[in-house]
Design brief:
The complex is a heterotrimer of chains A (266), B (321) and C (283). With 321 residues, chain B is an alpha/beta fold. In chain B, 31% of the residues lie in helices and 28% in strands. With 283 residues, chain C is an all-alpha fold. In chain C, α7 packs antiparallel against α8 and α8 packs antiparallel against α9. Classes of the chains: A mainly alpha (266), B alpha/beta (321), C mainly alpha (283).
């Protein structure tokens, strides 16, 4: 009836980018992020003090604390910001005006995802710079830690997608609990294989297998110990790990988009 | 129920609802609450249409279905011939929800810029449009203020700016006057009239009938999910004087060309339907020695119609001219 | 300040004071405290790993630091009960590649707890998991050396020496251990290898040369003395010269000392001497 309506629909990438940028801006200006960042930096700095209490290699302790801090605070940021990401939009009705635009719902979810991912990338970068600087001052070469930082980034990508998924279907508290549970399950997944060996029934065994494959296998991606000790990774590890992590996150994101598509906002 | 405007071809309509139903799950998942029950509605291009009704009538649900936020259980909805699920349909509309908040940390300019991007406006167009829009709604000085610091009235104005910034053919407003002071309400009314002058279609919902009466071309009154009355405003409520109310003191003449409305001590309130009877009444009162205290010309307002229809829900429709 | 505000401040101050005072009084009370040793039994590192959610190396670090503080406290009773468990099963399982706890734990066990075998077990485990860490068998060798178990020490030094990156002293220690254990042939072979190996450094070669001479001296003297003894037992008299021993086939040849001088046999006492021996300071 009206000419040229289809031409006014923005291409997918434009919409996703606009929403991602918006999400990034909104999250960055939320002060809770500064708090987490400060905590992390304080922890990394105080690792120098903690290392004074050890006998032997002090830098090893600094590296361990640094990597764990980056990982933990990254996860905390992903959960705190991620679970309220969609909920806040619904509660504040910003989503009403947003979805009344010529954007598709999956573009909204994907834009939110990339926005949060950008925030996390910034945080991880800042914390890594602080850690590397500290190690550099002490004369230790930090570059061996880069693959570990990359893997932490991949782990955070998965957690972000999971937080977003739960955020689109329930309130922040439940979403936080569910995401935390997924995080814990993901780190315990390796023990399911041990459990399976002790379980007699076929159903129990199948259940163990199912959970093992469905839950994100974070232990597959954890190379902190190898990076700190300078142990060579098996060849082909990095590309495979990146493919697994991104693939898993993509699946979760896809499910989030599907669940979001049919949802009524009453 | 007969369709609203049988002569209006829904292919040309700006908005068309056909047999739309929506029910939600009740409290704690028990039972079903019917929000919209068999809705038929047509809005023609270029008119200002008011969706009226008490709270809980289903106005907001109707608007949410119109903008694609809620899926109907049954029936068809079309915006300029396309369903709301089609992004191209949403490219032609601008929407302001009821009681909006906006992103706390964005500035007004960033906010408008963001929405402009979502509507496919290029960088040059955005750069020119954003300051102009802010000027238009009187928020030019607040361009760099974070939205968290905005008052309710300012938020509403910004919301309007967002709804019209891309010059949409159809503007949808859910309770646009709610919470505004009289000046704010007047500004909104002026804006709507300005949009109509520009040839746009405006569809808004309200439970403040006086505002609707001032600006609507056509209205529909919704109650419990159904349209109980709809049609051109002029047809529903005449702007002519319908009857007179006369208060007299003293003895009543015997044969009154009027009906008694009430008695209060020495004063009697009478209702006279025809101007001609008025003359006769005045003469009779003078003759019997009474006094005419006051005389009011009255007409049925939309509110009167509204209350009347709600008390006696008859699903009828006034024939259009 | 208004009266109300003053009263409110006083009230707050009073509450804070009373809380502090009661807290200190509680501390002074003589209460039942669990002996800390009973808290010490930690689960195996594999189980703690479950709780660590991917941060097991960090947990290993923290346990290590804690263990250092704990084992530095000399007043504790029964300090050494769980050393091997803490360093081997807890820290060792959490981070098998963590080198410091292994050698520190082994030293605590060997030196302070006087439990050499436990220390060696720890070091063996460490080496199994970290085949490139020559420090483990090296330390083991030294501990065994201090306890004069030279043969076992030699084995450990040999292991250490075969790992690339081990310092040259390791090979020297190995050869020296054979020597101390009285295994002269093995020692000689080892020192000869050091000289033959083109990768050996100057110090090692020099030491090897000296040792070869000394060992050759020792060996020859031992052989000659043994031959003299046998001659006397069989012939009821001492031999008159080394050549006679050689002629009568008690020795296969008449050796020269490391300085290429002949050995001297004193026919009256049966003693065998060498001028080189005096120079080296040994007999």
């Amino acid at each position: 009836m009206i000419d040229g309506l289809a031409a006014r629909v923005p291409p997918p990438w434009t919409a996703i980018r606009a929403i991602a940028l918006n999400t990034f801006r909104e999250a960055i200006r939320d002060r809770i992020l500064y708090l987490l960042l400060v905590f992390a930096l304080v922890l990394i700095g105080s690792s120098r003090v903690i290392s004074l209490m050890t006998v032997g290699d002090e830098n090893k302790i600094i590296k361990d604390i640094g990597l764990s801090a980056i990982s933990i605070f990254g996860v905390l940021t992903a959960v705190f910001v991620g679970v309220s990401l969609v909920f806040k939009e619904i509660e504040r009705r910003t989503i009403y005006t947003l979805l009344a635009n010529p954007v598709r719902r999956w573009q909204f979810v994907t834009g939110k995802f990339f926005g949060l991912l950008a925030v996390l990338a910034l945080n991880v970068t800042l914390m890594s710079v602080a850690l590397f600087a500290l190690l550099g001052f002490r004369g230790a070469s930090p570059w061996g830690l880069l693959p570990a930082v990359l893997m932490i980034g991949i782990e955070l990508t998965i957690i972000t997608a999971v937080a977003l998924l739960f955020s689109s279907v329930t309130n922040p508290i439940l979403a936080a609990v569910a995401t935390a549970a997924t995080y814990v399950m993901g780190h315990l997944a390796w023990s399911l294989q041990l459990l399976k060996a002790r379980v007699d029934s076929v159903a129990g065994s199948a259940f163990c297998d199912l959970v093992y494959w469905v839950v994100p296998g974070f232990d597959r991606l954890d190379i902190k110990t190898e990076a700190v000790h300078g142990i060579t990774l098996p060849s082909g590890f990095l590309p495979l790990a990146i493919a697994y992590g991104l693939g898993y996150a993509a699946v979760v994101l896809f499910v989030a988009c599907v669940l979001f598509e049919r949802r009524d906002f009453s | 129920m007969r369709p609203v405007a049988s002569e209006a071809d829904s292919g040309d309509a700006a908005i068309a609802f056909r047999g739309v139903r929506k029910a939600f799950r009740g409290h704690l998942g028990i039972g079903r609450v019917v929000a919209v029950d068999g809705l038929d509605l047509v809005v023609r291009p270029g008119e200002v249409f008011g969706l009226l009704g008490p709270n809980g009538a289903g106005k907001t649900t109707t608007i949410k279905m119109l903008t694609g936020l809620v899926q109907p259980d049954a029936g068809k909805i079309r915006l300029f011939g396309k369903p709301p699920s089609d992004p191209a349909a949403r490219a032609a509309i601008g929407f302001l929800p009821e009681n909006p908040y906006f992103y706390t940390y964005l500035t007004a300019a960033e906010f408008l810029d963001f929405y402009a991007r979502l509507r496919g406006l290029g960088a040059t167009a955005r750069r020119e449009m954003v300051p102009r829009m802010l000027q238009r709604v009187g928020l030019a000085e607040k361009a760099t203020t974070p939205l968290g610091k905005f008052s309710k009235g300012m938020v509403q104005r910004l919301g309007l700016a967002q709804a019209i910034q891309h010059d949409p053919e159809l503007v949808i407003l859910d309770e646009p006057m709610s919470g505004l002071d009289p000046i704010g309400r007047r500004d909104v009314r002026d804006l709507i009239l300005e949009l109509r002058r520009a040839g746009k279609t405006v569809f808004f919902s309200s439970h403040i009938l006086q505002d609707a009466e001032l600006i609507c071309d056509r209205v529909a009154i919704l109650d419990r999910g159904r349209v109980i009355t709809s049609g051109r405003l002029d047809d529903l409520v005449s702007s002519q004087v319908s009857w007179y109310e006369v208060a007299i003191r003293g003895a009543l003449p015997e044969r009154l060309p009027a009906t008694v409305v009430s008695r209060d001590g020495g004063e009697t309130l009478l209702r006279v339907d025809e101007v001609e009877s008025l003359e006769a009444l005045m003469a009779a009162v003078r003759a019997s020695g009474g006094q005419v205290v006051s005389l009011w010309p009255c007409r049925e307002t939309l509110e009167d119609l509204f209350l009347r229809k709600l008390q006696h829900p008859v699903h009828d429709k006034v024939r259009t001219r | 300040m208004t009266l109300r505000r003053l009263l409110a401040s006083l009230l707050l101050l009073g509450l804070v004071l009373s809380t502090t005072v009661t807290a200190r009084a509680l501390d002074k009370l003589d209460r039942l405290r669990l002996a800390e040793e009973e808290l010490l039994y930690l689960p195996n590192g594999r189980h703690i790993k479950l709780m660590s959610l991917g941060h097991q190396a960090l947990f290993a670090d923290l346990f290590y630091i804690w263990a250092i503080q704990y084992y530095s406290n000399y007043e504790r009773k029964d300090r050494y009960r769980y050393v091997e468990h803490v360093f081997g099963d807890v820290i060792g399982e959490l981070d098998p590649y963590y080198v410091d706890p292994i050698w520190l734990g082994a030293l605590i066990l060997s030196v302070e707890a006087n439990d050499l075998e436990a220390g060696l077990r720890l070091l063996d485990r460490g080496l199994t998991r970290n085949p490139t860490q020559w420090i483990f068998p090296y330390l083991a060798g030294w501990e065994l050396y201090h306890r004069r178990e030279f043969e076992r020490a030699a084995v450990y030094f040999g292991r250490a020496a075969s790992i690339p990156g081990a310092p040259p002293v390791t090979r020297r220690m190995r050869a020296g251990m054979f020597s101390k254990a009285g295994l002269l042939e093995d020692a000689l072979r080892q020192w000869q290898e050091v000289i033959d190996d083109s990768a050996s450094d100057e110090t090692s070669r020099r030491v090897a040369g000296l040792q070869l001479r000394e060992l050759a001296l020792k060996r020859d003297l031992a052989t000659l003395r043994d031959a003299v003894e046998r001659f006397r037992n069989e012939n009821a008299r001492l031999p008159r010269s080394l050549e006679e021993l050689h002629r009568r086939a008690y020795i296969q040849q008449v050796p020269l000392d490391p300085n290429q001088n002949p050995y001297r046999l004193d026919p009256r006492t049966g003693e065998v001497r060498s001028t080189a021996g005096r120079m080296l300071g040994g007999e």
